[in-house]
Amino acid sequence: MKITLKSIYALVLIILATLSLYLMNLFSKKPISLDHYLGMELVLNILDSPEYMTYLGIFDNFAGIFGHNRKLSISSLEDAEKNYKENLERLEVLRGFEQSKLDENQKITLKIAIFDTEMDIERHEKFRYHTYPFNQISGNHLNLVEFMTDTHPVRNEREASDYIERVKMFDDALNANLIWLEEQKKLGIFAPKYVFDHVIRQLGEFLSYEDSENPLIQIFKVKLEDINLSEKRSNELLNELNETIDYTVKPGFESILNFMTENYENANKHHGVWSLPEGEDFYALRLKAYTTTDYSAEEIHQIGLQEVERIGARMKDIFIELGYEVNKPIGEMMNDLNEDPQFLYEDTPDRKKIVIRDYNQMVKEAEEDAKPYFEKFPKSPVEVRAVPEYSEKTAAGGYYQSPSLDGSRPGVFYANLYDIKQTPKFGMRTLTFHEAVPGHHFQIALNLENEDLTLYRRLGYRTSAYTEGWALYSEQLAVEVGMTKDLYDELGVLQSEMFRANRLVVDTGIHHKKWTREKAMDYMKKTTGMSDTEVRVEIERYIVWPAQATSYKMGMLKILELRDKAKSQLGNKFDLKKFHSILLNQGIVPLFILEDLINEWIDEEAKLT
């Protein structure tokens, strides 16, 4: 395997961070600097997560030293308590840094770190068990399988052996989850009934797989074919994996299945987290963490209603311009468009291959069209792949996986091709803009590649208010600069924006206004025209992931608000390319910090003659 300069740099960084920790503990226990302290903590946290080490990729060249590719994290109750105590210590250290001794970049870093740590502490203290560890879109019954098939590399015999060693740890990981479920049970916290139905089905499907159908075996077999082992050795590895699944993996899945079936009657009869202990306060905290604002649930609900009305009016105008008679709600108009054969792919055996080919072509076109509006492009490429079949029934319409830190793995936009109606042609470009160019791939890859940022600023903090806000802003930007090809493409963008505005309404509706799943589905269906499959999947996602869906539109609105402010105050001095650079060059930040950054830029530009 080729050892790159970045890989060597990463190893040196780890050695220095570990040595620094030792010296800090040996002497004053006071970190030399804020960046040193946070970088050291981040590296140690990375070393504590074998999955993340594999995900980053740069450690794989030294797998013999770290052994991470043979391990999985086991999330115990003791680990959670240990993390909480470390967060308390961390907050004390962070508050001990003197603002007067920090440069402007470090002041931003400190604000981010304190905000993030305070959120984690409050969540643990008040709402430690307010999650659904197993649900239709996540949980180790899905995550472990997807990690092994999509992320764990098999480039040589050692990594093939590591694959099996990791699969052997599935049972330990699931048993740790079972302990967590039992703790939740003591508090009366259970997922809604439909979640039980999905998870029971998913577990049952995995347990009933024939060897040839099991994705763990399917993908492993394909990866073995690419590394040119002898037939004898390949068969030995496949047999070992088969035995591991039968005697180690399946018992873990069966233990979770037994818990779900035995507690089926305890399933939550309601759908919103308001029904959990102190559920309203929990939801308020989730809104603050995901939107990085202080908006209340009611305020966000009203913003959503206003945006749904505004976007619907523009969609109506486009339908009229296209020659349609608007004699029904916009949602129904879009649903009709969604089912129009001229916008759908034929259901042929090679449909998925054709759609992926077309998506990849759209990525290339978007890259060319975006050039005049950005000062810098990512070095890492991006490609489009289909969502794996074993998860496509419940996965979102599309999602993005970032490139590895050393550039050995590209960014990937995964498109869900399960339902033909899920991929109307007029909606494909907007998904490309959102997930790839200039959306998630631009923002995330540029962040990883930004050597002007500290390690903490590149890898240590995440907020979907910023990342999803940027991706949704990218969709509107694409319309504004002519990256859409016709009015149908613009309808696709508006449908996407309507969808995100809708989320403000239905997420707060479910978790604040006590809407049922069915009421939320009915509202989204009428206002967006999305397919029944899409609507069900989305609403069920919001139920198990409260508040996250509000971050998209709230983030976009903040970016647009800041852009309008900059345009208004700078006039002909406003430079869109520079505005984008300010947004993208500081890494992932909370919205309140993003606002500070743009305000400072406006002041600096206004002073220039």
Helix content: 55-70%
Could you tell me how far the N terminus lies from the C terminus, measured between alpha carbons in angstroms? 54 Å
Mean pLDDT over the full residue set: 91
The H/E string reads HHHHHHHHHHHHHHHHEEEHHHHHHHHHH
The number of E-state strands comes to 3
Q: What portion of residues belong to β-strands?
A: under 5%
Q: Major sheet, described briefly? A: 3 strands, mixed
**Outline type:** globular
Number of helices: 26
Nearest-angstrom radius of gyration? 24 Å
Cross-sheet strand order for the largest sheet: 1-3-2
**Which stretches are low in confidence, meaning pLDDT under 50 for 5 or more residues running?**
1-5
Class by helix and strand content?
mainly alpha
